[in-house]
Amino acid sequence: MNNSISFFIKFFDNEQHANSFLSGNIFANRFSHFKTIEDIEMSDSTLLTISDEETIPFKSVWRNCLNIFCMYAGKEGTVEIPKACEELGKFAVIISDVDEFLNRVRQAVIENDFHMENSLVGYCKSNEALDSIFLKPRQFDFQQEYRFAFSTGVAGNDPLIMNIGDISNIAEKCCRFSEIKNRLSFANLNN
Predict the structure, then answer these.
(1) CA nearest 82: which of 145, 6, 160, 156?
(2) How far apart are the C-alpha atoms of 10 and 18, rounded to whole Å?
(3) Engineered SS bond to 45: which of 6, 57, 102, 149, CB 3.0-4.6 Å?
(4) Can you tell me the distance from the alpha carbon of 148 to that of 164, in angstroms, rounded to the nearest whole number?
(5) Dihedral Cα 67, 70, 76, 79, nearest 10 deg
């Protein structure tokens, strides 16, 4: 199903959040939250071309209502995770069965009557990242991000907590950044 990604890593600041994720709870903040923490200048409106002579401002506030869930996406043979990822949290959950994880997320989306788009994030010049939820400025390319965008049909600023069922059979927790390399090296030896 997903041949280019061999594992996901979700980083956490505290162990309680990592344990909650292993129990199947996906915590997805609103898109507007990420604009703030990544200090990205994003306009509230974009110019929409009507004809060769006419453009009008078009408010793109719909993006702010999406709930976003992000993870590091690793490729086969990868054992080195960029040191900059350590800033994302000292606890990590490595998901070794990417296809099963994606299936569980899709199933939860269906059961909750949500809509979802998901993709690897592309990295570009800062001003190009303004128009897509799947583009980020190049300064964040170390994150190798895979992003889920959930539309719940509910406006507001509240995060989404969606349960996909316990994932401890397809994932494992690391309590130190240094453990990640060891776990990935061991997984590559056993494949």
Answers:
(1) 145
(2) 8
(3) 57
(4) 14
(5) -170
Distance of CA 122 to the CA centre of its chain: 12
pLDDT in tens, 78-116: 767 888 888 889 899 999 999 999 999 999 999 999 999
Q: Which two tokens stand for residue 137?
A: 């400025």
At 157, is the secondary structure helix, strand, or coil? coil
CA-to-CA separations, 131 to 31, 32, 44, 82, 111, in angstroms, rounded: 13, 13, 11, 27, 30
The Cα–Cα gap between 180 and 173 comes to: 9
* Per-residue model confidence as pLDDT tens digits over 135-179: 888 888 899 999 999 999 888 889 999 999 999 999 999 988 778
Identify the helix (H) or strand (E) that includes residue 173. strand 171-174
Convert the pLDDT of each residue in 38-82 to its tens digit.
Answer: 444 444 444 444 445 554 444 455 567 789 999 999 988 776 788
| Buried b or exposed e, range 91-125, using 16+ CB within 10 angstroms | bbbbbbbbeebbebbeebbeeeebebebeebebee
Phi, then psi, of 146 in degrees rounded to 5: -110, 130
Tell me what pLDDT residue 40 has: 44
pLDDT at 52: 54
| Alpha-carbon gap, residue 131 to 153, rounded angstroms | 21
**List of residues 6+ apart from 102 with CB closer than 8 A:** 1, 2, 118
